Amino acid sequence: SVVIVNITRSRRRTTDQPTEVALLGWSVLQDVTGVALAAILLAALGSNGRPLPVTLAGLTVFAGVAAATARLLPRVLHSIRDQHDLFLLVSVSSGLVIAGLGTVVFGIPLALAAFVAGLAIAEDPTTTEVRRRLLPFRDLFAVLFFVVIGSLIEPGRLGEALPFAGALLLLLVLAKTLPIALLARWRRLPARPSQLAIGLSQMGEFSFVLGTAAASHGILTRAQYVGILVAVIITIIASTVLVREVPRRP
Description:
Elements: H1 2-9, H2 17-45, H3 52-79, H4 84-104, H5 110-119, H6 125-152, H7 158-186, H8 193-199, H9 205-216, H10 222-245
């Protein structure tokens, strides 16, 4: 979503409005589906050695806390809207508290808990103001995201990581890029199918989060983890650049 938002807001973009709407809508659907699947896997496999019933209960309660926050937070923020410093502090701290509760109390991985905390901000005029005021933070953390990815790549492992990265790139094209283009044409979406497919063809921040969690639990080898980082960088750069080079005709 971070990459796609930048694609749709770039001054050099060549996408039209229907394509931008489709890009954003599809990316949100991907994120929500990813969170749901991650929660199901946590429940099925257990989290941090917790029994399955405890994990399920923790996920359920955490979902309830996030939903309640999404309903109550706009009212709280509306009441302090004129107090700019307090407004910003409450906005940021609410997300951090939800993420902390998810990890410490309910045993949910921090990355997933933080992602759900971000989704807890509902569409509302007040929370729209929150997002506007948090834009500088978004840009800062987006830069830090890429800095972190660059710092985690180990040049000495690139040789053994490249085959895994190549397999991921091939899988991405076959399982994502081509199906999106074909589905867009089949359903006659108003978006430009080629731009839509290329714009969505990246392994973004959530893939990085899942890869980090898998590597920390020993599910992936170090070389495979570096391969994921390489694939993330290649796909983000390629999708951002190539989406502007696609012919403007459908």
